From TrEMBL, chains A, B:
Alphabetized GO MF terms: transferase activity
Alphabetized Gene3D superfamilies for the sequence: Glutaconate Coenzyme A-transferase (3.40.1080.10)
Chain positions covered by the region annotation Disordered: 355-384
InterPro entries, alphabetized: MadA, NagB/RpiA_transferase-like
Protein name as annotated: Malonate decarboxylase subunit alpha
Source organism, top-level taxon: Bacteria
Originating organism: Bradyrhizobium commune
SUPFAM superfamilies, sorted: NagB/RpiA/CoA transferase-like (SSF100950)
Length: 552, 552
């Protein structure tokens, strides 16, 4: 599109929108009409779908559009979380998709790809998708979400800033149209997160936006095996590598680590020496470590439902503005996770003989989210640290250090499926879905440690693929994968320090139990927070409850 | 620092500042007093030192502070460009430094490191430094720079947005104090780049901030050898790998490529097929390709002096806001360069037998800037593209693609020094400066192609270090490095498609000359821009002129 036609096109779209708005404000009952006015067939459109908050009202408004007016849209969005995110394809409004994660919609998405309703461009990590939104997947229209707006269109996101600034910047500086749904319109915002120049239309939504507490793990569900593996992680990695700057995945494995920092790690004299700087959402399970003074700094991708007051009261640890509330930023946090952290600790469903791991299973297209970005050696990194240098030395690299990438995986999944497999399901998924490459989450040659309930494999010390495979079989325990190797071969790896059993690390398996947890229930977390943490309903009641919505 | 003391501390600093300001505005003659009021001994302080624009007035004001009041500061800044950036160390105000690039101050910095005046924490790439500013190098005070402010403290950066939003976010959401120097205070800004909630004090500076046109290459200085190498790059890499999304380094090698896109590449039918999406500052040498419709999109780290009106008039190509001016963003552009580009093309001073390259020389500590981030295989990347897949296939990787990393280097530097060396000066520099690792700019195992005036080495096809070394010697020509290999060995690599000579690529060396350039002088660029490009004085006059300042 030429410069003149682009300017004319934007002006024409805004002129059509102006017939529906009062200044920048569009009443919610005109939301679909607004979208039909500003979106054109064939447009690239982004719906803000974060890990947590959702532009759900605008997603629904788009899904109600007339497919004879709006069709062939190319959706570019981080997360497919809501049924409406797929309804736009089922109704013939959109046909192409570039995305990063499709957790709850992964099975439905696989069906729609198979029957040709959705044509996927590529599956990205978050950071890749933002990058492409600036380069070749620039949105013509962005449907974003914030807590509050003023009448000029300035936006306040509250603690869940997440993707909003990045999407708004990508669209508004490409002649795109930015439409924001907000929970309320106020005279004066607590702070401005997105300047009004970047926002064209504001729609007050009838209900607060949907938001999910995805990063809350109930300490009551942490099992003894998780604690045992957590003690091994601290004794085999955190302590010898002096890991201060790190990122944790979600799941009970890392929740257990967070919960034994003030007990097990503190007893080993590690306070101030390890785990002092996190890039992490405000996990409730981090509260005891924060209160124990273990944690200096947490930079956040997003917030976590129920943690708002606690985080606001700990401005010395979390990124809090002069207004007193968290500002998160997923794009910058992904950068921080990649380049300011010496270690990523994650969990997985399947590991193959080369250490490749994946959460992909047949019949589901889940995508990648952020883990591959954090769970890769950052080869562009040039600054050193004791951790990074030691990892490089153990890997035998004379020229550069290495990032620690730790996978925590029990030898059996909770459903009884083996975690170590000769071939990842990801390979079959790639074949059936027509992907050019299998959706590997973390590649084996980037993994430095695999920890099971049996032991720790230090892959940094493996010089050959066969040695790496042997190390993995040695920690796979009494599984088919593990039994393929002789006990003598495993014992040899142990003598060479490649494989470590709990006893090698001075860990008494009988005492590595839930007794080590600094909090054993959600109530304990509330108490540790001084009553500032307010758990969402689903974590307060034993019975399942419907999806929580934002209480703002 | 506890949450309470952090809040009290910030309030106390702001209360001291309030005695010097009228609202948020501080008169320039009180700038040093202001800095002494808001900075405390031992603080981490950042001075905005971008690639282009400089917070020069605030840097000078800090350098004038009383060292008995302000001492032991820890400076965290992207670029050391100005004498005042080192004066703070020489005067005993600061003692520690974490940084990314020290171009013009590299020799002086090396002296101050050697004599113990400056203690360097680490040398970073830009993206790493921003990441650490969010995690463990959070600034207590940020001294930033913008074009204009309003009386509330909202900031307008103009086209050179660069690092300002990232630094402001890092400081203001950590209880830090943000002080901005601006060229003028106005009633209404063209747009808001930094919301006023993030800015504590504004200082109108007596002179517009210093800014350098670092990315302008005069076409008159492009030599025939540059053009020959540019034709090889297009024939051996851009065309067969169908490279659409890319980043260019600075220098005459890539300037030559930019200038033959509308001639040589267009004649090969490549318009719309290669080099359509750039992550790049607005290089004046890109004007002919933009005007020829070769380029769809350029996302920018910063702007370039003299290109303001041209860029504003090409909003279909560059990121331009509703106010009609470019907004750049170095942090997001580094992300885009890493994750949305299939290729980085750079130049270097020295290459060793394994393809490691560096611009480091003895007696200078230059730092890294951004090249290592772009010039590394992005192992966290998961989305595919034809370019990325083909590079992975040529490298024999069944599981993932590869980023193309191309080094353009003449076998001799303009000063006659050999470019191919048995050992990089970077190794000696590391030994003499006490670095833990040599400052390698791009590692050999990340490089995919090396192009000299003699030929192209495709390192993707080399399976062993010895083969890579042989391929490099084959393109080193009649140099000591090249003569260490028999012509037969080089001929064997050529037969196997690892080494390509110009004739193998269908290039007639006699016709690969300056005649191919779409613009041969700065005046030609002005003409191509329709008079919209306004070259800075140093490019208009033959004689050397003093450093250009911003004409805003």
């Amino acid at each position: 599109m030429s410069v003149t036609s682009q300017g004319t096109d934007r002006a024409a779209r805004l002129a059509r929108a102006a017939t529906l708005t009062d200044g920048k404000i569009c009443p919610p009952d005109r939301a679909t009409a607004l979208i039909e006015a500003v979106v054109m067939p064939g447009d690239r459109v982004t719906i803000e779908g974060d890990n947590q908050k959702q532009a759900d009202f605008l997603a629904a408004a788009l899904a109600k559009a007339d497919p004879t007016r709006l069709h062939d849209l190319h959706m570019v969005q981080s997360v497919l979380a809501l049924p409406d995110h797929l309804a736009v394809f089922e109704r013939g409004i959109a046909s192409r998709l570039d995305f990063a994660f499709a957790g709850p919609q992964s099975r439905k998405l696989a069906e729609l790809v198979t029957n040709g309703t959705v044509k996927v461009g590529a599956i990205h990590t978050y950071l890749e998708l933002y990058a492409r939104m600036l380069v070749d997947l620039t949105p013509r229209v962005a449907l974003i979400v914030a807590d509050k707006a003023d009448r000029d269109g300035n936006l306040y996101t509250g603690p869940n800033t997440e993707d909003t600034p990045t999407i708004a910047e990508a669209a508004s500086f490409r002649g795109g149209i930015v439409v924001a749904q907000v929970n309320e319109i106020v005279d004066r915002l607590p702070r401005v997160d997105i300047p009004c120049d970047w926002v064209d239309v504001v729609v007050p939504s009838p209900k607060p936006y949907a938001i999910e507490p995805l990063f809350t793990r109930d300490p009551a569900k942490v099992r003894d095996a998780n604690v045992l593996m957590a003690t091994m992680a601290i004794a085999a990695v955190y302590e010898p590598f002096q890991v201060q700057r790190l990122n944790h995945g979600i799941g009970y494995a890392t929740a257990a680590i967070e919960l034994i920092l003030p007990t097990y790690a503190a007893a080993r004299g590690l306070k101030g020496k390890v785990a002092s700087h996190f890039v992490l959402n405000p996990h409730p399970t981090l509260i005891p470590a924060v209160e124990a003074g273990f944690v200096d700094n947490v930079y956040c991708f997003g917030s976590e439902l129920g943690m708002e007051r606690y985080v606001a009261s700990r401005a010395n640890v979390f990124p809090v503005g002069a207004d007193g509330n968290l500002r998160s930023n997923r794009a910058l946090a992904q950068v921080a996770g990649q380049y300011a952290c010496d270690m990523f600790v994650g969990a997985t469903l399947q590991v193959d003989p080369q250490g490749n791991s994946s959460t992909a299973t047949k019949g589901r297209i889940t995508g990648f989210g952020g883990a591959p970005n954090m769970g890769a050696d950052a080869r562009g990194r040039r600054h050193d640290s004791p951790t990074w240098l030691r990892a490089g030395e153990e890997a035998g690299d004379p020229l550069r250090g290495r990032k620690l990438v730790v996978q925590m995986v029990q030898t059996q999944q909770p459903n009884g499926a083996p975690s170590f497999v000769e071939r990842l399901d990801a390979f079959d998924l790639a074949a059936s879905a027509g992907f050019a490459r299998p959706p590997v989450m973390v590649y084996g040659d980037d993994v430095t440690h695999v920890i099971t309930e049996k032991g720790v494999a230090n892959l940094l010390r493996c010089r050959l693929p066969a040695e790496r495979e042997a190390a993995l079989r040695a920690v796979a325990g009494d599984t088919e994968f593990g039994r393929r190797q002789s006990p003598e071969a495993s014992e040899d790896l142990r003598r060479r320090g490649i494989v470590m059993l709990p006893s090698d690390l001075g860990i008494d398996v009988r005492s590595a139990t839930r007794d080590l947890l600094a909090a054993r229930t959600i109530d304990d977390l509330v108490t540790a927070s001084g009553g500032l943490y307010v758990p969402p309903a689903k974590f307060r009641k034993p019975a399942a409850t419907p999806a929580t919505t934002n209480a703002a």
